[in-house]
Amino acid sequence: MNTPQPASSPTLADPDTPFAVVDVHKSLRNIERLATRADRLGVTLRPHVKTAKSLDVAALMHSGTGPCPVTVSTLAEAEAFADGGYTDITYAVGIDPHKLPRVIALLDRGVTLRILLDSTEQAEFVTGAAREAGIRIPTQIEIDCDGHRGGLRTDAPALVGIGRTLHEAGCLDGVLVHAGESYFAHSAEEQRLAAKNERDTAVTAAERLRAAGLPVHTVSVGSTPTAHAADDLSGITELRAGNYVFFDLVMAGLGVCQIDDLALSVVVTVIGHRPEYGWIVTDGGWMAMSRDRGTAGQPLDQGYGLVTDLHGNLVQGLVMSAASQEHGTLTARDGAVLPELPVGTRLRILPNHACATAAQHRGYHVIDSSRPARPQHAPAIQSVWERVSGW
């Protein structure tokens, strides 16, 4: 929940480090960018809240006009967002029998909670539970467009049979596709082709089901790279993305955003120096940043993150190159001179993977870079936003 701060607001110089920071100005800018694109493409935007896992961040997505459709990655998220008034939710992880009672409980509350599956076995236990409970469990069939993860190929013999099993129980909602391999598409053209393949795959699967006389209401696609690269979403009903609300160094490395668009960072403190090794040591290790090294496979490896001052200005040539549990190591690269940063200096680290870094923290200290602090003062903390945790 949004925790208002006292009249004399603290700044980024006050809380014990490490802690996560969200720049609300940059988040709003990122949100507006994709909302405008989805509107131009003629599709409903269903943000994936798995990145921020925050009702306060989600509220930015609909400008206080009422809860928007959302995608979740855990039932804990679904339950928390239902408690927050969200009634149109897609749980985009394959279902298992043990989770169905929680699904049914949300449906009984009046929440439209769509679930996901890609096998005959899942379809049978879902429809059995639906009949036993006397309710409809809206279900989407996951379609595989690039071999990244789960899903059925569009020509899978089981596809129509699964669709028919769901339809006979009143449970067939549609199809869902995620272009996971787009995170390895290193050019605008590769991303455009990934988006086209994602769209074509989803439409083909929907047409195959419809040709068998089965209704397909939802045709859902999305990933942050493809959402920003798609130029034609004909036949698609909704677009999903989540990382875009914060962005990160992986997305910047793909060219989906700029470094200045990154809205999430982690404040750390310099706690030591090892000049013989060229190290500056901080109190922010992988417990603060995560173990994600997503830029390691990109042309420019950003280590565990890039370094800025408290105002968000990059410290040129400084990178978080190594991490242990509670220690981060900063080093200079590309011939840069290691800066003089005394013990006690506070810095911000921009993460490789926003979802993974955010998950290391209980909440976000919120700043607004559209209200710049005076140079001698750290940015003010506007509020503290909690995150949803657990599964």
Task: Explain what the structure shows.
By secondary structure, the protein is α/β, with parallel strands linked by helices. It folds into two domains: 42-241, Alanine racemase (TIM Barrel, Alpha-Beta Barrel), CATH 3.20.20.10; 259-386, D-serine dehydratase-like domain (Lyase, Ornithine Decarboxylase, Chain A, domain 1). The chain is 29% helix and 24% strand. It is built from eleven helices and 18 strands. The protein has helices at 24-41, 55-60, 75-83, 100-108, 120-133, 158-168, 188-211, 224-229, 249-254, 286-289, 354-358; strands spanning 2-4, 19-23, 44-47, 70-72, 88-94, 112-117, 139-143, 172-177, 218-221, 238-241, 264-274, 279-282, 305-308, 314-323, 328-332, 346-350, 363-367, 383-386. The strands form two sheets. It has an eight-stranded parallel β-sheet. A six-stranded antiparallel beta barrel has the order 11-12-15-14-13-16. Helix 8 links the parallel strand 9 (218-221) and strand 10 (238-241). The longest helix has 24 residues, at 188-211. The protein is elongated and about 70 Å long. Residues 3-7 have low confidence and may be disordered. This is Alanine racemase. Belongs to the DSD1 family.
> Given the helix and strand composition, which structural class is it?
alpha/beta
CATH topology of the largest domain: TIM Barrel
- The name of the CATH architecture of the largest domain is Alpha-Beta Barrel
Assembly state of the chains shown = single chain
Fourth-tier CATH superfamily name of the largest domain: Alanine racemase
Task: Give the number of domains.
Answer: 2
Q: End-to-end span in angstroms? A: 19 Å
From N to C, what is the helix and strand string?
Answer: EEHEHEHEHEHEHEHEHEHEEHEEEEHEE
Q: Main β-sheet, in a few words? A: 8 strands, parallel
Task: Note the beta-strand portion.
Answer: 15-25%
Helical percent range? 25-40%
- Rg value: 22 Å
Taking pLDDT < 50 over at least 5 consecutive residues as the criterion, the unreliable ranges are 3-7
* CATH top level assignment of the largest domain: Alpha Beta
Average predicted local confidence, pLDDT:
95
Helical element count? 11
Number of strands: 18
Q: What's the arrangement of strands in the largest beta sheet?
A: 3-10-9-8-7-6-5-4
Based on Cα principal axes, name the global outline. elongated
